[in-house]
Amino acid sequence: MNRGPFIFLGMFAILAVSWTVVLYKPTQQTGRLAAVYDEAQGGVLPRGTNGAAEQGKALYQELGCIACHTQQVRVASGFDLERGWGSRQSVARDYIDQTPALVGNTRLGPDLTNVGLRRPDADWHLAHFYNPQIASKGSNMPAFPYLFETREIVGEPSARALKLPGTFAPKDGFEVVPTRKAEALAAYMTSLKVDYDLAEAPKSKDAMAEELAVALESAK
Fold first, then answer.
1. Which residues span the domain enclosing 77?
2. Predicted confidence band at 215 (pLDDT cuts at 50, 70, 90)?
């Protein structure tokens, strides 16, 4: 008896089921996700990026930052919450307005999901881009001095010039000024924050304890 057709049909069935489980099912679960409106949290969630931050996102991709940084707070594996990288895990709805979603898969540097909350000062980021050793001594992140202009001071110093310490400062009579690209990248960094809650996103124990404390205080 020729069993070739049965073997072929069996292999086809296995491939079809695998495709359904691996590709189709997740698409069904997440492909129809939409933003939610929560007046108490300021309106439409998640909040998107725009303006200079959107330009900074394009530069983030151009520089290959995704090769070293993730944008996904994980709970099942790792200690992301304990490290202060977020107050809750990331969920699919957080990324619905991102094209592309820069989730990443390698962490040679810290996760950046909430770097805008951890480091809200754009000047900190600008100094970090110019030379990471200024703000994060021992960092393995490369410097991006070409995003800045070192120029002679003519008249009054620029209000945009970096305040660089010690050996990082330019010689007397010169200043280091960020280009528009550097400022856009800093705007993108400060825009990265998940300061809202979603029903499907489990909160950390600390966040839940804080909410309970606030509720108990309000009930007094």
1. 36-203
2. very low
